Every structure is written in C-alpha cells, then in structure tokens.
C-alpha cells in the first residue's frame, strides 16, 4: 500500500501512511456522534444512555470552564435522566460532580442533601457491581468447553441464590437484568426449555404492565430466547408464529439479526415448512452484511443451506448445485472443534447425500465414521437422541436398505427418539432437521431406489 500511494516503500513514506491512517480514523470516529440511535430495532437503552452521557459530558466541560450555573442545570438533568433509565453509574457520576460544585460554591444545604443521595447511589452501585461480577464469571465458565460447562452446572444454584439476595437488597433494573439472564442461562444448560418460555413470557407481561423499565429492558433478547426455547422445547409451530411476529423488531445491520434468523430458519425446518425455510434462507443471504459474519457463522449457513436443499424435492436443486454439494460433502471434516454442536449434523448430511446418490460405498464409509464418532464423543447420557438415531441408521444396513422392513424394525427406536427430550445447551448436538422427520425423508429416498456399490463383489471362480 505504501508503494501504491507514494511510489516507493521507504521508512519516511511508511510513517506518512501511518499518519494518514490516523487522521482518517479520527475523522471516522467523529462520525459516531451523529449515529441515529432512535431506531427501535436497536437496543432500546442505547438512545437513553447516549443522551445521558452527552449531557453529562457537556456538564463536565462547563464545570471545567467555571460556568457553574449552566453546569449545575445540565448535571441535574443528567442525573434525572440517569434515574429514569436506572443508569446507576451515571447517577453516581452526576451526583459526585454536583456535590463538588456545591462545595466550591459553599452551598451547604445542597451539599449535605447531595452527599446523602450520593451515599445511597454508591451503595446500590456496589451491589450492582457484585451482581455483574458473579454473572461475568458464570459467562466465562460457560464460554469454554462442554466439560467445563458440565462442571459449572452444579455450582449455578448457589450463584443464582447470591444474585437473588443482591436483587432483594438493591431492587434495581441492573440486578434484575443480571438475575434474569443468569436464570435463562441456567435453565438453558439444564435443558428446561419450558421454564425459559415461562420466564420470557413473564418478562414480556411485566414489560406490558410497566413492571420493567421500558428504557432498559431489551425485548429483542427476550424475543430471541423465547423462540430459541420453543425450538429446543419441540414447540416448532408455536415458535414459528412468534418468530414471524418478532422478526421485524431486529435491525438487518445488527449481528443479532443473523442469530435470530438462524433460529427462525430452524423453526421453519422443524415445523416442516420447507418452502418457508428456503425463503428465510434467501432473505438472509440477501442481507448486505451477510459476508461480514465470522467464518464459523458462514460455515453454519452453508450447512443450513445444504439441509434445506436436501429436504426439498430433488428437481428443485440444479445439477450444478448438486455437484457442489457432492464436492462439499467430500471435504467436510469428521470432527472439528470450531463446529462444536454440528459435527453429528455434518456426518449425517454426508451420509444422506450419498444415500440419495445411491452410492453404497460412500454411504458405508459415512456409517463407519458415525460409529467412530459415537464411540469417541457421544458416550454421555445427554447424547441419547444422537445414539438412538445412529442405531436407527444401522437398521438400514442390517436390512439391506429395504424401506418397508427398515420402517417396521425401526418403529421401537423411532418411538424412543420421540420420547427422549433434547438435552440442555451445554451438551447438545444440534438437530437441524428433527430425527423423526429425517427418518421419513430417508425412507422416501429408499423407496425411490436403494444404494448400490460401484465395486460389486466378484463371483467365485467355477
């Protein structure tokens, strides 16, 4: 870049480029002051927090310039807005500066009154800080490996009890919000998705009845957790209806939009609304910021696309695309930590693709890979649904891929799958298409023709 701009890559030109980059960055950062935070599809607290910070900043400047009268008015306004939004840290900052101002102006009654208020808000801030510390440590542990999350689960009730105690003392939005998110995390790890639906429904009701601070509560997060719980709690039809209503609440430029649309897409698949799933996928890929997602997210969308195309009738997929899927299936890894939660889905998709292609040799290779993966990574009780489905796939092998016999012999296993609830998120492999639906698709594929080997066994010499 130095050579392209200045014609020669020298130390002096490199420094000139660095200075240019710094100036451009400074100008870009200045544009942050002009962002429109009023769009309701953003985090609702953003506009109120930015307004509060803006007035507090101006009050500080006026105080530094000795304009005490103007500064006092702005600082009082900042504190009033901070109280309305329950931004305790800004309430403390405003009150502290007002106390200093009253001290310098020797306004003793105001000084004493502000000191009393400040002590109260500092105590609340201390309780909020402790609640946030506990929650941050919980999040750190849950962000690590599956084993770590499994180990942290027994410690969470004690942490929730601590958060409940802090909230009873403080009774602020911040302590409520931390407790609310911690409860959702705990129930998610346990796999208690009905309780998540209850928690989110209760929060939505409190918001409607003015029981929660409308300037702070992020209803979009509540929407996301609700539809997520409907998906994992096997209530796809109800969840899809909610997702269709909630989708308009998310701004397309937000990364949260993509997370929500992942759940929206999966709900459509689980509800067997395959055409709707394709529409959602198309909407997602048309988003101008689609390619700005992390590599892992883009790979997930590729996997979702392959599943969506698999469940549609074959004639709806072009020959070129089917060749792409074949090549893609051959290059997918057996096990990848970056694809944690999707490794089984990848292996199953590979198997199903070659089953549809009637390639017995590749099908058997994938069956062996699934067997090895099960032995190494699916031994826990939480992986029962995965193990049952793999056993169901082996029924196909045992019965020479005969659809009628396989369907009859697989009934018991299929019923066990239906009766086995999905595990908590700490341990879960994602079912992009539910296993009971996938079994029906497999049988339909086999009815169209069973797989054959490209290398038939040689007949014995006579």
Could you give the distance between the termini? 75 Å
CATH architecture of the largest domain: Alpha Horseshoe
Q: What is the helix content? A: over 70%
CATH third-tier fold name of the largest domain? Serine Threonine Protein Phosphatase 5, Tetratricopeptide repeat
Sequence of secondary-structure elements: HHHHHHHHHHHHHHHHHHHHHH
Q: In CATH, what is the class of the largest domain?
A: Mainly Alpha
Q: Number of folding domains?
A: 3
Number of strands: 0
Query: Which spans of ≥5 residues are poorly predicted at pLDDT below 50?
Result: none
Number of helices: 22
Q: How does the major sheet shape up?
A: none
- Structural class designation: mainly alpha
Rg for CA atoms: 29 Å
Short key terms for the protein model shown above:
single chain, 22 helices, 3 domains, 72% helix, Serine Threonine Protein Phosphatase 5, Tetratricopeptide repeat, 0% strand, mainly alpha, 462 residues
Summarize the model shown.
This protein is an all-alpha fold and 462 residues long. Helices cover 72% and strands 0% of the residues. It folds into 3 domains: 2-34; 44-217, Serine Threonine Protein Phosphatase 5, Tetratricopeptide repeat (Alpha Horseshoe), CATH 1.25.40; 309-448, no CATH class.
How would you sum up this structure, described in words?
The protein is mostly helical. It has helices at 2-6, 11-30, 44-64, 68-84, 88-104, 108-142, 146-152, 156-170, 173-190, 193-208, 219-232, 236-246, 255-270, 274-286, 295-311, 319-331, 343-356, 360-377, 384-398, 403-409, 411-419, 435-448. It folds into three domains: 2-34; 44-217, Serine Threonine Protein Phosphatase 5, Tetratricopeptide repeat (Alpha Horseshoe), CATH 1.25.40; 309-448, no CATH class. It is built from 22 helices and no strands. α11 (219-232) runs parallel beside α13 (255-270). The longest helix is centred in the N-terminal third of the chain and has 35 residues, at 108-142. The N and C termini lie far apart (75 Å).
């Amino acid at each position: 870049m130095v050579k392209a701009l200045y014609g020669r890559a020298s130390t002096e030109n490199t420094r000139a480029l660095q200075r240019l980059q710094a100036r451009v960055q400074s100008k870009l950062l200045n544009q942050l002051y002009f962002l429109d935070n009023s769009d309701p599809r953003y985090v609702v607290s953003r506009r109120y927090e930015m307004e509060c910070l803006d007035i507090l900043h101006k009050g500080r400047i006026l105080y530094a310039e000795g304009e005490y009268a103007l500064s006092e008015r702005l600082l009082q306004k900042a504190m009033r807005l901070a109280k309305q939004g329950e931004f305790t840290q800004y309430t403390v900052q405003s009150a502290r500066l007002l106390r200093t101002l009253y001290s310098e102006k020797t306004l003793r009654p105001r000084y004493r009154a502000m000191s009393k208020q400040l002590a109260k808000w500092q105590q609340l801030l201390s309780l909020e800080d402790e609640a946030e510390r506990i929650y941050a440590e919980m999040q750190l542990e849950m962000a690590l490996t599956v084993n770590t999350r499994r180990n942290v689960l027994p410690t969470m009730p004690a942490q929730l009890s601590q958060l409940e105690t802090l909230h009873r003392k403080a009774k602020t939005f911040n302590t409520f919000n931390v407790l609310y998110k911690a409860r959702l995390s705990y129930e998610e790890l346990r796999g208690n998705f009905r309780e998540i639906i209850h928690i989110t429904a209760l929060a939505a009701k409190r918001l409607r009845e003015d029981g929660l601070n409308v300037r702070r509560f992020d209803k979009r997060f509540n929407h996301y957790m609700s539809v997520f719980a409907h998906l994992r709690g096997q209530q796809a039809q109800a969840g899809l209806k909610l997702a269709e209503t909630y989708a308009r609440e998310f701004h397309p430029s937000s990364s949260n939009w993509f997370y929500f649309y992942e759940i929206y897409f999966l709900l459509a698949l689980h509800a067997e609304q395959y055409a709707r799933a394709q529409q959602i996928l198309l909407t997602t890929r048309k988003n101008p910021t689609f390619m700005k997602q992390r590599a892992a997210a883009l790979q997930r969308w590729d996997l979702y696309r392959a599943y969506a195309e698999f469940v549609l009738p074959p004639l709806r997929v072009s020959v070129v695309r089917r060749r792409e899927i074949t090549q893609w299936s051959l290059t997918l890894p057996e096990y990848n930590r970056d694809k944690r939660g999707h490794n089984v889905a990848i292996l199953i998709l590979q198997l199903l693709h070659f089953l549809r292609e009637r390639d017995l040799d590749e099908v058997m290779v994938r069956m062996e890979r699934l067997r090895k993966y099960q032995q190494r990574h699916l031994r826990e009780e939480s992986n029962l649904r995965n193990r049952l489905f793999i056993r169901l796939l082996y029924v196909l092998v045992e019965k020479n891929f005969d659809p009628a016999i396989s369907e009859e012999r697989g009934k018991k296993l299929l019923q066990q799958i239906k009766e086995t609830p999905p595990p908590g998120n700490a341990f879960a492999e994602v079912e992009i298409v539910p296993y009971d639906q996938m079994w029906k698709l497999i049988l339909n594929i086999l009815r169209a023709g069973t797989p054959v080997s490209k290398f038939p066994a040689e007949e014995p010499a006579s």
